[in-house]
Amino acid sequence: MHHEGAPAPDNEQQGANIAMHDAHERGATAHQATPGDAPSTPAAIVDTYLSLLMIPDPDAARRFVAPDLRIRFTGGREMRDPSECAAFNATRYRWVKKRFERTEVVAGGTDEETVVYNIGTLYGEWPDGTRFEGNRYVDRYVLRGGLIVKMDVWNDSAEWLLSRRTSAGGPEAEAVTGASADAVAVGEPGTR
Q1: What is the pTM of this model?
Q2: What's the pLDDT tens digit per position in 26-43?
Q3: Nearest 5°: CA angle at 112, between 50 and 137?
Q4: What are residue 187's phi and psi, to 5 degrees?
Q5: Strand pairing class (65-73; 147-155)
Q6: From the CB of residue 45, how many other CB atoms can be counted at a distance below 10 Å?
Q7: DSSP string, 126-178
Q8: DSSP letter string over 137-151?
Q9: What is the DSSP string of the chain?
């Protein structure tokens, strides 16, 4: 994990493991898959895909998706490729990462179709450099034959941005973002 004053991670593998490390530190049951592993369970596939997506490394993440992938991002934005997620995130954040709290496989899944949820919080910096953390997210995945065919993404970012605008930088803005401008974002991997 990166701490203030320490150099930023110097390779993509270390950056990909941040979300797994954060979950492990809290005793969560997130899988310890890394991008080099060949994940075999639906939960490990989702964790590995999401870790790669958050580097961002959409080319490597693409190994875990079906050709007919359907992504519905926040605000109902339709996407078809992991690179579109990375491109959207680049417009909304200076940088953003996910802390996995848990990955849940819905009971009754089969090789034909399995539903997996990944739940946690976002942390990073808004475009103006203000740091944030504790921004809740829920991602829902549908897997068929070991590949992700559908991804739905929900988070609190729009609500936080709206509150920041209406607060015009007053004390309410600090409370909404969960951190003051000089707070340390634990695990900050650096900018893209």
Answers
A1: 0.70
A2: 333 334 445 555 898 999
A3: 30
A4: 80, 15
A5: parallel
A6: 25
A7: -TTS-EEEEEEEEEEEEEETTEEEEEEEEESHHHHHHHHHHHTTSHHHHHHHT
A8: EEEEEEEETTEEEEE
A9: ---TTSPPP-SHHHHHHHHHHHHHHTT-------TTS---SHHHHHHHHHHHHTTT-HHHHGGGEEEEEEEEEGGGEEESSHHHHHHHHHHH-SEEEEEEEEEEEPTT--SS-EEEEEEEEEEEE-TTS-EEEEEEEEEEEEEETTEEEEEEEEESHHHHHHHHHHHTTSHHHHHHHTS-TT---TT-----
- Interior CA angle at 48 toward 155 and 157, to 5°? 10
Q: Which amino acid is at 173?
A: A
Average pLDDT over residues 126-145: 96
Q: Report the alpha-carbon distance of residue 56 to residue 54 in Å, rounded.
A: 4
Residue type, 89: N
Band (pLDDT 50/70/90 cuts) for residue 168 is low
Residues in Cβ contact with 184 at an 8 Å cutoff, skipping those fewer than 6 apart: 3, 4, 131
**Residue 145's CB: how many other CB atoms inside 10 A?**
10
